Protein: Phage tail protein
Amino acid sequence: MAKSEYYTILTKIGIAKFIAARASGNGINLKSFKLSSKVILPSEEMQSLEEIVYEANISSKSVDESNPNYVNLMCHVPSDVGGFEVNAVGVYDEAGDLLAVGNVPRTYKPILKEGSAKELMIKIVMELSNAEEVILKLDPSVIMASRDYVDAIKVELNLKIDALTQKYDAEFKKVWDEFAKYLLENKFNTEIAKYVTLATNQTITGAKDFTKLPTSILQATKDEEFTNKRYVDLRTINYGGIGQKGQAWHKLNIPSERTHGVWYTNNTPTPIMVYLIARDIYIDDIRIIVNNETREVVSFIIPSGSRYKTTWSPSVWMELR
Structure:
């Protein structure tokens, strides 16, 4: 690793221990780090640091993505520790020997009583022929994830969430489209006709005279009277249910057509069906869906004149109306 103004090197003790570890096949357990306020020039001869201001266990170890021979050690100083200047850092093994030493840019670590507080994370890069020679037994209570690691995980999770959302959106749209098609093809009317029968079975044979036919009226006034076919043809039967002829699914734009936190009233004469991927749902001030963790796929019916809203921004918003 090329040296710059600030760098980290192995001490002679560190070199000897890594050579021995390579020969034996055993790794070296790097355990802790110490910070010094003294300005130094790192040297292989160094066996200890002077003017120690802070020491703790190493927070994490990782192999550099761009160079597998670089080992990155993260040394964390919490916000409630401070009031000192940091100019040097040393890495120690479980035996307490100084294996690596480095200098850092002059950094003051404040403490809250001075009017400011901050966390400090020092990254130490060690160049080894085999990164597996470093063993790091971490205390779970002090392990911290680097920002790059967290960002990478966040991107991966977002990609998975987007993929799942698209998958379920497509699947549920297919289901609802089939359901709407079934209703709009009047299969409901066909099926219900099977159950409409006379009160008693009757058989008509031979020539019959029907004496109670309407003459000047268009509508039968008694149950036993026939009614004019023209009247029947002109009658409009209004079914009050969902999926009647004329209703269709509408995918609504968010937020121009629909947005969370706003009440929407069903102003149509028939019920409508709503399909959302969201959290809390209210119908006429009654909370019907409660989920404070994740968004869910939900569908519900809004009677004519009723209103509804969701308190979380949905990713999909559709209405059958």
Q: What stands out?
A: Residues 136-146 have pLDDT under 50 and may be disordered. The chain has two domains: 8-144, 159-191+216-320. The first helix runs from residue 12 to 24.
